[in-house]
Amino acid sequence: TVYSGSEDFTIRAWSAEDGTLLRTLQGHNYIVYCLAIGVDGTLFSGSNDYTVRLWCGVTGALRYILPVDSKVCALAVGPNGKLYAGLLPDLAKDGVIVVW
Q1: pTM (predicted TM-score)
Q2: CA 9, CA 33: separation in Å to the nearest integer?
Q3: 77 neighbors 86 (Cβ within 8 angstroms)
Q4: What is the pLDDT of residues 27-54, one digit of tens each?
């Protein structure tokens, strides 16, 4: 499965084999800027709506909403399974990295 974040606040899951749309995930309140996939298949999404959302990679069900105090501009999952998020505070030139 290939995922894409969108300006219409959604995430789309696409078939890696033939490119067909598998499902559309809804829940963010702003553009989805970044995505990451966890070692267990969990999909993480970040947006300027000040949240990181955790989705089931198989069903697309929303599992958890993690509120943060800044815009989310980057996500990565380390080999140890930890989630790294790049946050950009309002009116700041320098960002912050948060680890969960």
Answers
A1: 0.89
A2: 9
A3: no
A4: 999 999 999 999 999 999 999 999 999 9
